Q: What sequence folds into this?
């Protein structure tokens, strides 16, 4: 049996991931506030048969400062709600997975659950969701319901920071638990339309989630019937042990940020250990490595574009993920090498949109296909199908008897 | 020129107006059903498409209510998807202020307004319902008297956020490196009784600046709330006289808020049944009423008035001899109370049943939810126009009884007659919902200062 091909995702944000991306982008500067922009990017990714696109989100303006707005007007500032953008482009696409980011620190788990379930309904089973923890005190001030102390990123081991991060992830874990419970709160066959008894639903097939936790309690059931995938795909971005454990317990897909192949192998080992520790019974996490990519026809041209961007930004580019600068062929070789570290695929963050996206779709994807590493088209089905994840049984349904 | 009629389409709701037992009844959750209804409304040049909201499944006698359609999609998500398959139709969502926060909801509505090119509308509702609160962080602690206070401050806060970016903020000076021409993009501070928040809003000013605001409450507080700031009011007055009384009352309130009578549109929710002859339409109306009131639903609706367990009652037999229980907690949860004086209403129903010799089901069919407009397309067009021209309404939110085809016949047969009379548009002349409704541009703080 041939090795399964790798999974390829693209992370979409603004006009690209480089802070000076907008200076070189061919797109109108206000493009991120139009549906046409997102539809064209998702369409481009779909023409290359990529697995999914993710959409970034945050309940605050972008900032280069860790905990407050930076007041800068020389970079892209402002964004739309990612989940609604995903819903807006769902009817315009047919195969590609749509994975918006949503904060779980300041939002209602009930609303998030019904929104993602609805995204799954309107996309015919292509919804994913990346829950995100909001640690910034500026975001908390937009809600006025709790105060978060300012975080000092220079002192990650400060006991107060460790406690805060632990609490935020514990709350996020409760939120995902509730969101998933609500997705299961309707059995697939709950709607019966039985004219003889006058019943539209069989209430025995609707279930109260009855969740009570430290931060909230949610009674259920959902108002939305079970989504087509049963459980839409949950993805987590993780850089450290606490989020690795969070992903192992609650996610289907994890995005990680290795710096090289050796680091990738170490992270994969750490994640597999975390799965063991938490007693994961679901299929193993699909581990996708994040890479910021800047692609051009020759290594020199790519380098020059990178230097130009850095010069425009006034600083060398830094990121939580490794940055690749080179040709699509070189990147294909690198992905092949990294993949042998046990990765299931990659989430590429284009440095400049749309240029680096079209380099991915029109040059990288064919190069990977030439190497036998990527599918030629969509096999059909849901996002779970595409990722090789079975449709989960409903936690509330009695197991079928023989 | 005669008054122009506003038309909106309500997606069939989770109550017994919606008939699910008919062979023509399709899915209430498949996106295709929403696409069909929205595109039909747009084909008919309607002003907007309307979604209700429910945040907890209804219960009766402590159990999930199973006789009506149950389940619906999340309002904002399905509206954003519908923006992709329509081009002019307004997209109105009912969104509760009790279980949301201004920053998040203002951001979602602003996003919807951008993604639809200025077609977003928000039906502001409010509840103090602890039953629904069990699904939310907030719980149900909101005092009843604070419902409208919170709603009003919520809308004020949302407007501050919608105006937090100036018009045309983008300079896009790629050589000079200036993306925005704004000192403090999205900066806001709101320090009020209900909300004390400050920071930066992430969404630039939208095509409508303020999405259209609808209001659906009928109490004096609700009317005052609408008069103070809503663009349209979703009312429920079925008869011409009631409609005219409501219309006069609400429009008279506007001057006190410095507003013109045209600044608030009155749009009652109505049902309709068409036929080739008036007699055929009446026959169809009766058939639909029987579908809407199954034997089980008849008992259930009676229980809502009597507030007692009537599960042993014969649906074809006489009404209960006892009076309603007005002391116990409401037997039905998750919907608004419907009867001001249950004992008096029950006595009227009993008297009517005895006089006409009606059993439970036939009595319920007789006294509840009769269709608003029944007749040939010509008669319905004439009646609707009469309603509008005699100031009982500015237009209607049509509530079809079938998903997804319930609007087809109206669009095919009634809309052309309204157009012939010169009281309904023959093409969209604007692009935003504000323009469709004939509303003035949003009254921003700058506009208010400029006078």
A:
């Amino acid at each position: 049996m041939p090795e399964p091909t790798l999974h390829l995702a693209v992370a979409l944000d603004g006009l690209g991931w480089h802070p000076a991306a907008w200076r070189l982008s061919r797109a109108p500067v206000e493009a991120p506030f139009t549906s046409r922009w997102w539809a064209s990017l998702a369409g481009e990714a779909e023409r290359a048969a990529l697995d999914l696109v993710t959409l970034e989100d945050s309940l605050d303006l972008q900032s280069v400062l860790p905990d407050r707005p930076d007041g800068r007007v020389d970079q892209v500032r402002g964004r739309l709600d990612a989940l609604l953008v995903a819903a807006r482009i769902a009817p315009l696409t047919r195969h590609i997975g749509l994975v918006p980011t949503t904060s779980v620190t300041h939002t209602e788990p009930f609303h998030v659950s019904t929104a993602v379930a609805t995204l799954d309904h309107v996309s015919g089973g292509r919804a994913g969701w990346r829950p995100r923890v909001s640690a910034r005190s500026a975001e908390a001030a937009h809600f006025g319901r709790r105060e978060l102390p300012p975080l000092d990123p220079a002192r990650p081991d400060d006991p107060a920071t460790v406690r805060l991060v632990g609490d935020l992830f514990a709350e996020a874990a409760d939120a995902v638990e509730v969101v998933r419970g609500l997705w299961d709160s309707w059995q697939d066959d709950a709607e019966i339309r039985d004219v003889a008894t006058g019943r539209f639903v069989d209430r025995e097939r609707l279930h109260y989630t009855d969740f009570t936790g430290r931060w909230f309690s949610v009674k259920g059931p959902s108002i939305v019937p079970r989504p087509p995938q049963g459980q839409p795909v949950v993805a987590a971005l993780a850089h450290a042990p606490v989020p690795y454990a969070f992903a192992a317990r609650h996610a289907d897909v994890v995005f990680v940020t290795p710096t090289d192949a050796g680091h990738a192998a170490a992270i994969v080992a750490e994640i597999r250990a975390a799965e063991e520790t938490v007693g994961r019974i679901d299929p193993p996490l699909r581990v996708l490595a994040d890479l910021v990519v800047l692609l051009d026809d020759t290594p020199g041209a790519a380098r020059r574009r990178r230097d130009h961007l850095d010069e425009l930004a006034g600083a060398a580019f830094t990121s939580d993920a490794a940055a690749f600068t080179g040709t699509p062929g070189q990147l294909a070789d690198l992905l092949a090498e990294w993949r042998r570290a046990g990765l299931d695929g990659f989430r590429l963050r284009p440095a400049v949109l749309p240029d680096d996206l079209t380099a991915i779709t029109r040059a990288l994807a064919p190069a990977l296909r030439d190497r036998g590493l990527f599918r030629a088209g969509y096999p059909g089905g849901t996002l779970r199908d595409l990722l090789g994840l079975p449709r989960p049984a409903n936690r509330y349904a009695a197991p079928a008897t023989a | 020129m005669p008054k122009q009629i506003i038309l909106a389409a309500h997606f069939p709701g989770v109550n017994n107006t919606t008939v699910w037992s008919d062979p023509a009844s399709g899915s209430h959750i498949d996106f295709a059903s929403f696409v069909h209804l929205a595109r039909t409304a747009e084909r008919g040049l309607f002003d907007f498409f309307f979604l209700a909201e429910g945040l907890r499944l209804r219960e009766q006698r402590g159990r999930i209510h199973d006789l009506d359609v149950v389940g619906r999609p999340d309002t904002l998500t399905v509206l954003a998807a519908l923006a992709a398959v329509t081009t002019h139709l307004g997209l109105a969502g009912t969104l509760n202020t009790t279980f949301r926060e201004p920053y998040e909801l203002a951001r979602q509505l602003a996003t919807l307004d951008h993604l639809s090119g200025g077609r977003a509308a928000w039906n502001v509702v409010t509840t103090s319902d602890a039953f629904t609160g069990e699904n939310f962080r907030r719980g149900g602690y909101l005092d009843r008297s604070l419902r409208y206070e919170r709603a009003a401050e919520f809308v004020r806060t949302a407007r501050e956020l919608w105006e937090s970016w100036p018009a045309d903020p983008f300079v896009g000076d790629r050589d000079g490196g200036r993306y925005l021409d704004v000192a403090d993009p999205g900066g806001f501070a709101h320090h009020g009784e209900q909300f004390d928040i400050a920071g930066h809003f992430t969404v630039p000013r939208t095509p409508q600046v303020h999405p259209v605001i609808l209001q659906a409450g009928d109490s004096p507080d609700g009317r005052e709330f609408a008069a103070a700031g809503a663009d349209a009011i979703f009312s429920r007055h079925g008869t011409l006289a009631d409609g005219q009384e409501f219309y006069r009352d609400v429009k008279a309130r506007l001057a006190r808020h410095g507003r013109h009578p045209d600044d608030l549109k009155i749009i009652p929710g109505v049902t309709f049944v068409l036929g080739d002859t008036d007699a055929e339409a009446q026959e169809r109306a009766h058939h639909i009423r029987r579908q809407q009131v199954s034997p089980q639903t008849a008992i259930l609706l009676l229980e809502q008035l009597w507030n007692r367990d009537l599960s042993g009652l014969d649906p074809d037999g006489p009404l209960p001899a006892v009076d309603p229980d007005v002391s116990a907690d409401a037997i039905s949860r998750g919907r608004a109370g419907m009867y001001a004086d249950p004992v008096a209403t029950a006595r009227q129903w009993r008297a009517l049943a005895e006089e006409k010799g009606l059993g439970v089901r036939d009595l319920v069919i007789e006294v509840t939810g009769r269709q608003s407009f029944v007749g040939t397309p010509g008669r319905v067009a004439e009646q609707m126009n009469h309603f509008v021209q005699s100031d009982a309404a500015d237009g209607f939110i049509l509530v079809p009884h079938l998903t997804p085809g319930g609007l087809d016949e109206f669009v095919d047969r009634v809309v052309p007659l309204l157009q012939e009379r010169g009281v309904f548009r023959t093409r969209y002349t604007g692009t935003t919902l504000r323009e469709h409704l004939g509303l003035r541009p949003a009254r921003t703080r700058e506009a208010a200062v400029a006078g």
